Amino acid sequence: MLAGLRLHNIALIESLELDxxxxxxxxxxxxxxxKSLLLDALDAVxxxxxxxxxxxxxxxxxxxAGIEARFTLSDGxxxxxxxxxLAWDADDDDGSDALVVSREWRRQDxxxxxRFRINGVAVNRQQVLGLRPLLIDLTxxxxxxxxxxxxxxxxxxxxxxxxxxxxxxxEVRVTxxxxxxxxxxxxxxxxxxxxxxxxxxxxxxxxxxLEAAALNDGxxxxxxxxxxxxxxxxxxxxxxxxxxxxRLQDGAxxxxxxxxxxxxxxxxxxxxxxxxxxxxxxSGQCLDLESGLRDxxxxxxxxxxxxxxxxARLSELQxxxxxxxxxxxxxxxxxxxxxxxxxxxxxxxxxxGAEAALDQLLADETKARLERDAANHRLTQLREQAASDLEQxxxxxxxxxxxxxxxxxxxxxxxxxxxxGADAVNFLFSANPGQLLAPLAEVASGxxxxxxxxxxxxxxxxxxxxSSLLFDEIDSGVSGRVSGAMADLLRTMASxxxxxxxxxxxxxxxxxxxxxxxxxxxxxxxxxxxxxxLRDTQARQQELAELxxxxxxxxxxxxxxLLDQRAA
Length: 568
Fold this sequence. Notes:
There is one protein chain. The protein is built from 20 helices and 16 strands. Strands 1, 2, 4, 5, 6, 7 and 8 form a 7-stranded antiparallel beta sheet that branches. A 6-stranded mixed beta sheet has the order 9-13-14-3-15-16, with helices on both faces. The chain has a 3-stranded antiparallel beta sheet with strand order 10-11-12. It has helices at about 35-45, 50-55, 75-85, 125-130, 150-160, 160-200, 200-210, 220-230, 235-250, 260-275, 280-305, 310-330, 335-350, 355-400, 440-445, 445-460, 480-495, 505-510, 535-550, 550-565; strands at about 1-10, 15-20, 25-30, 65-70, 90, 95-110, 110-120, 120-125, 135-140, 405-420, 420-430, 440, 470, 500, 515-525, 525-535. It starts with a strand and ends with a helix.
């Protein structure tokens, strides 16, 4: 709930701090005193009122202004804070978790800028707007126009469907995206098939060229390059090999070979071992060296056997390397890519290959479309159930508000599928006998629209209880009897949600749990707005009497009776 509001240099308010409690709160006062200013402030601090509208909130001539709203936390808000990696602190007064959202304006060189913070951490406006639905549901004058906006009626119906409908809507989005991807691939393949026929001869020639090159191994270039290096340096490699074998096995310049020296060492160690058995391990190591040297000589001899310096083979290798590099440059692919291209062309040009690929894509699109349509059908069924519940609930709320003959229907008609389903939702309304059902925005009067919106918000409060409800003169233009019924609805909502209402109706004000009065004063030629909480019965009677108007004595008696009825 909204626990507190602090304003500094906002419009007619120099400094103000208010604390709020659960239940039903009203704000009353004379026209122009600034009642709606408090709702405007909440709207602004939670991401609304940009540009010139926000600039008008800042008190003229002041370099700085600010709004701070303090909320107690719900599970949904805590989840949101965790997702955003934002911390929250315990309230110092009662130890409960608290959330503080603030917005500060600064004026510099005639330029006005603002900054948002959540629990002292700077955030952007989009983050605040994401948090806003979890904190307040603000209904201001003129908001009944929302009822006529495309998609708004469907969004309200979906909210009434609660978690099952939200799950179905998420499934619809997933299946829609999967179908759209499959459809796009199919369209692309069909376009490519048309282009393929036009380029058939060109691709056949390309395949013939690649097959003539016998491209089978993506590493062939590396292997050929290594073999070429051996052939080019064959003479030098033979010379080195002869020198190595000579020094290791045959000896050089009448000197004994390494093998001769090693054999002599082994013989000497064996003789010494007869005199000192502890030399047995060293003798064994020497024999291992002799065995390893023989293995090395055999491998060198094997290498010499395969070492080739054939000039004809070298020329053949160089021609092959030139061909492969020329193909790479011409087609802009490495050898591995050319091999893959060859395989792809073979598949595509094989009779039935392209058709098989197209058939598979068509099957994928059909499967995805059927899954999309099935998800849409499940969503439609849930919307129809939510529509039936809404129709009954709304009629129950509307009839006591002076609409005894009202009829209401949620029309759900098919439309082109999208990520929000395949349903068009339209609220149909008739307030009078003999009047045909027609779109709500076309036939409902302003007062009827206000009552409808209040009834709708009451229905929503039953399934979406995560935020405070704020109404700005929702009861404007209705009679006393109707305003009494609206007061009953507001009190009903306040049993589940924190409810605020700016009102001129004494019946509505009398029904509140908490009452704030907004007034204007002039000090030193400057107009100021003042907000005071009416805590005692006498103060509330005086305010209700002023709202009722007429003879002062009668108005006071009427006000007293209203408070007595509420207490009863």
